[in-house]
């Protein structure tokens, strides 16, 4: 992890120097800029992940029909599901890669902030937080992290009757908020900004995937 930690430290310091050059010296702003940069780089992967997950949720009724129809023939069931995925252009495994890429970045940022050597510690302040390497004393960022996680999770739901979706809808935000309470505030900033951008992206993904499923359903009905 050390090369990645060093890279994030170098990027943060240079982004801080950029904020200083425009007259707004702030490490918190540097983290926000780093988050936007990471989001832009990972946009194609995240877009594919969001699209695939949303389409698969929209296809739940069709998937349940196939599972019911071929409940005694796992091989035909799997073949029919793969044909359904192919028809709608989704990959069930597409959600793994973005998570695997973002996890090392999150860990590296966490470790970098704990031992960060600020070029100017006075500029490590963020509103009510004296230093972004410290925990949020009022838990505002953890609450925002939990809230934005809930909103984004709610946007991916297609059915309010699925007990698994209901459990994850509430459990995941609570876990994120609880974890964020013990982490440096800088990570809270990163997570909240990432979620806000994810919510915006999810909105447009939802619009496009609904049209894809609707068009596919009409074509199948026509056949």
Automatic annotation (TrEMBL):
GO molecular function: membrane insertase activity
Cellular localisation: Cell membrane; Membrane
Bilayer topology term: Multi-pass membrane protein
Coiled-coil ranges per UniProt: none
GO BP term, pick one: protein transport
Claim: Acyltransferase is one of the keywords in the record: no
Transmembrane segments: 24-45, 138-155, 167-193
GO cellular component, one term: plasma membrane
Principal location class: membrane
Keywords: Cell membrane, Chaperone, Membrane, Protein transport, Transmembrane, Transmembrane helix, Transport
InterPro entries membership: YidC/ALB3/OXA1/COX18 (IPR001708), YidC/Oxa/ALB_C (IPR028055), YidC_ALB_C (IPR047196)
Pfam families associated with the record: 60KD_IMP (PF02096)
Iron keyword on record: no
Membrane insertase YidC/Oxa/ALB C-terminal domain ranges (all copies): 27-207
Family assignment from sequence similarity: Belongs to the OXA1/ALB3/YidC family.
Name the UniProt record assigns to this protein: Sporulation associated-membrane protein
């Amino acid at each position: 992890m050390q090369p990645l930690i060093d890279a994030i430290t170098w990027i943060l310091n240079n982004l801080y120097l950029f904020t200083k050059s425009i007259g707004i010296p702030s490490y918190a702003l540097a983290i926000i800029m780093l988050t936007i940069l990471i989001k832009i780089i990972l946009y194609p992967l995240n877009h594919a992940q969001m699209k695939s997950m949303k389409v698969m949720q929209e296809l739940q009724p069709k998937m349940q029909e196939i599972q019911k129809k071929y409940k005694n023939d796992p091989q035909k069931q799997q073949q029919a599901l793969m044909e359904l995925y192919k028809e709608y252009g989704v990959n069930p495994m597409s959600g793994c890669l973005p998570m695997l890429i973002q996890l090392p970045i999150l860990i590296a940022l966490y470790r970098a902030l704990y031992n960060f050597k600020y070029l100017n510690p006075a500029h490590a302040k963020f509103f009510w937080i004296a230093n972004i390497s410290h925990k949020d004393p009022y838990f505002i960022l953890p609450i925002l992290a939990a809230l934005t996680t809930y909103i984004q999770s709610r946007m991916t739901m297609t059915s309010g009757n699925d007990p698994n979706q209901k459990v994850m809808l509430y459990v995941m935000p609570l876990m994120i908020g609880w974890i964020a309470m013990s982490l440096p505030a800088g990570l809270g900033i990163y997570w909240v900004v990432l979620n806000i951008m994810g919510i915006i992206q999810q909105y447009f993904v939802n619009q496009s995937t609904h049209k894809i499923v609707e068009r596919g359903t009409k074509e199948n009905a026509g056949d």
